Amino acid sequence: MDTSNRSVPGAQAVARAARLLRLVTSTAGDGAALQDLARTADLSRSTTHRLLSALRAEGLVDRDEESGLWMPGPELFLMGSVAAARYDVTALARDIVRALAVKTEESAFLSVRRADETVCLLREEGSFPIRSFVLSEGVRFPLGVASAGLAILSFLPDHDVDAYLDRHPDLSERWGRTHARAPLRRRLAETKERGFAVNPGLIVNGSWGMGAAVFDRTGRPEWALSLTGVEFRFGPDRIADLGRTLMAHAHQLSSRIAGARR
């Protein structure tokens, strides 16, 4: 937790509840079991149940009575509808993501940076029949793990990258040795030089991803377009072609966002 909030009454409870909300909404509508939420949030089952019950009373989460799984509640939809007017770019991006899927025949995505994570906002299926299902709407990954987050992190200022790595020294414990500081920094440098990110099956063996950052008016990478597919579709020559296509679509979306927010 941010040390600046430790003296604020109720801050710990709010932070825990917010953590559970993020976990529930990252299930992409499938629902999450109490024990899984408790383990991931590093809370006891009783504390997790108490917080979820309070959130349910406010309509922020819901519980399926048959399966016992916890899901996003109706109040989140209403809140999201209001927030979308300021933060949502999916209306601007939908046709670009669809065009990317059509042109490449791979699954295409739009993700947004949210603090130290990326959240998938849009998914469009490509026509190639064999697909990767690592990513879907609502799924979150830490920056630097999936290709979208790797692309975004690569183009943040150096001091922001340093601060992020200091905040997350345990990335390699959860995501493997390739996410330790030294190899991650190498991939960040390669991504910045190349212009787009490549994830060679580092999350799920055989499932490759590529990403290109999308920038706001000030030049900060706040979104990313990405592609996923099976390994044999990502040979060296095709990676170069896909990279150029990704960057062209990302540039188009960056220009559209800048123009829409003037």
TrEMBL record:
Molecular function terms from GO: DNA binding; DNA-binding transcription factor activity
Signal peptide: none
Domain HTH iclR-type as annotated: residue spans: 11-74
InterPro entries recorded: GAF-like_dom_sf (IPR029016), HTH_MetabolicPath_Reg (IPR050707), Tscrpt_reg_IclR_C (IPR014757), Tscrpt_reg_IclR_N (IPR005471), WH-like_DNA-bd_sf (IPR036388), WH_DNA-bd_sf (IPR036390)
Superkingdom assignment: Bacteria
Entry-linked PROSITE patterns: HTH_ICLR (PS51077), ICLR_ED (PS51078)
A biological process from GO: glycerol metabolic process
Ranges of residues in domain IclR-ED: 75-259
Pfam families, alphabetized: HTH_IclR (PF09339), IclR_C (PF01614)
Keywords: DNA-binding, Glycerol metabolism, Transcription, Transcription regulation
Purpose of the protein: May be an activator protein for the gylABX operon.
Name listed for the protein in its UniProt record: Glycerol operon regulatory protein
Source organism of the structure: Microbacterium tenebrionis
Organism placement in taxonomy: Bacteria, Bacillati, Actinomycetota, Actinomycetes, Micrococcales
